[in-house]
Design brief:
The protein is 0% helix and 52% strand. Strands 1, 2, 3 and 4 form a 4-stranded antiparallel β-sheet that branches. It has one domain: OB fold (Dihydrolipoamide Acetyltransferase, E2P) (Beta Barrel), CATH 2.40.50. It has no helices and 4 strands. The protein starts with 10 loop residues before the first strand and ends in a 6-residue tail after the last strand.
Length: 65
């Protein structure tokens, strides 16, 4: 199995939403996260860019026997 890892540090845009899928009953959370980048432009002025990320986290509950 492959594993991808991403680390984002930012600010939540609103409270996370919690939902369950209809067919499998898995729990998921939806997050709205803002990340910012700063730099100095050629005109020596500080520039800023905000990017919004929609993050969906899914828990796959496995039952143990």
């Amino acid at each position: 199995m492959y594993e991808n890892r991403v680390e984002l540090m930012g600010f939540l845009g609103k409270n996370p939403e919690s939902k369950s899928t209809k067919n499998t009953g898995r729990t998921l959370a939806i997050l709205s996260l803002a990340t910012k980048t700063w730099w100095t432009g050629k005109d020596e002025e500080r520039k800023e860019k905000t990017e919004w990320h929609r993050i969906i986290v899914i828990w796959n509950h496995r039952q143990t026997q």
